[in-house]
Amino acid sequence: MFEFDIHHRDGLARVSSFHTPRGTVTTPMFMPVGTQGTVKGISPEELLNIKSQMILGNTYHLMLRPGEKLVEAHSGLPGFTAYPGPFLTDSGGFQVMSLGHMRKITEHSVTFKSHLDGSLVELSPERSIEVQEALGADVIMAFDECPPFPAEIPYIRASLERTARWLERCVTVKKKPEQALFAIVQGGIHEELRQLSLDLTLPFNTPGFAIGGLAVGESKEEMFPAVEFTSRRLPESKPRYLMGVGHPEDLVAGIALGVDMFDCVYPTRTGRFGYALTDDGRLNLNSSAPRQQLEPVDAECDCYACRHYTRAYLAHLLRAEEMLAPRMLSLHNLRYLHRLVERARQAIEQGRYAEWADEWAKRYFKGKVPEWFAHSIHSR
How high is the mean pLDDT of the chain? Predict the structure, then answer.
């Protein structure tokens, strides 16, 4: 049911098919984030039009509102949201970090104060799986703790060891074979802790593995050696998911290191603030220059916004605080990342990924390509 077929390799980068009950997706791919059961401002029809393949939902948020039982009554997230394709649900583990001021961790579970009304909410490995089974996602994540950055080595060690024990409980309680459970490798930026997490996690032989605990405040110079170290040691025959990472340069570098799946709120969040992603870097439509520019946001893009609107029009909408502008910029940014991975796949198929990435980087970084990026691209 969850076959993973690799079709092309170029260095560590690969093009693959990941088969799920709701359809086959092609990797590398970027997954739009629909935390509350919606990608902010974007309809399911628009997601399909820009060739989104899999959408991410969040266990913690959907458990609190509207509650997993209501979603289950709609036959899961596809029926609830009207998006017919595959879904992935985060376990709520990220909220263990992001709501750190509102939670208490024990061996059994994490107790939160709800960010909605302050009531106490308990989330354990068993409860996380129960909720994710009700949500009906194709890919579900093991309950883990994502340690903050920076954190002391003894804290990270204790956390990842507990995460491995939680993984065992997730595997034990999981009932639905039509859902693929992905384990998460932690360890921060420390190779010895990453190796320990790998040693504890890989024996579970889950259908896929995620690289967690990164893009939480560390520099890219610190993050990408940890990505490379972990990715090289994950099974070749299973999908690799780099959690919460979605800047364009991160995707290009991560793909070179063998990552297959990415997600991040960055494209929609930055769109809501008036920024557009392009091969020339981030375009600020709040600035004065776009107000008089009659060209599209990105002449190379095929999204609805770029085919129909000028920069001047979208800049006008932003200044007028019209809701169409953040919607269209979010749509464009998602399509930009989808196009980016499409081009990456084509370059891998042609056996010229490093060459393509070098060309892309010279334009994107305006000739000043960071060392961490160049190292990632030319890893073999």
Answer: 97
Residue 75 CA to residue 283 CA, distance in Å, equals 41
Beta carbons within 10 angstroms of residue 168's beta carbon? 14
pLDDT value of position 100: 81
CB 340 within 8 A of CB 252: yes
Do residues 20 and 2 touch, judged by C-beta distance below 8 A?
A: yes
Residue 53 makes CB contacts below 8 A (sequence gap 6+) with 25, 26, 29, 31, 85, 86
Q: Which residues pair with 112 in a beta bridge?
A: 103, 121
CA-nearest of 54, 41, 44, 53 to 329 is: 41
Q: What is the pTM of this model?
A: 0.97
* Enzyme catalytic residues: 90, 263
What does the DSSP 8-state code read for residue 118?
A: -
Q: What is the pLDDT of residues 30-69, one digit of tens each?
A: 999 999 999 999 999 999 999 999 999 999 999 999 999 9
CA 43 to chain centre: 19
Mind listing the pLDDT tens digit for each residue in 301-325? 999 999 999 999 999 999 999 999 9
Q: What is the 3-state secondary structure (H, E, C) of 180-195?
A: EEEEEECCCCCHHHHH
How many other C-beta atoms are found inside a 10 Å radius of the C-beta of residue 345? 22
Sign of CA dihedral 168, 26, 377, 332: negative
Q: How far apart are CA 22 and CA 11, in angstroms?
A: 30
> Is 53 within 8 Å of 85 (Cβ atoms)?
yes
What is the Cα–Cα distance from 66 to 36, expressed in whole angstroms?
9
Measured CA distances, 21 to 84, 164, 259, 369 (Å): 11, 27, 22, 41
Question: Do 110 and 170 contact (CB within 8 A), yes or no?
Answer: no
Beta carbons of 306 and 298 less than 8 angstroms apart: yes
Contacts of 276 (CB under 8 A, 6+ apart): 282, 283, 285, 297, 298, 329, 332, 333, 336
Q: Give the Cα-Cα-Cα angle 225, 203, 148 (nearest 5 degrees).
A: 40
41 Rama class: left (phi>0) / alpha (psi -120 to 50) / beta? left
- Tell me: pLDDT of 102 over 90: no
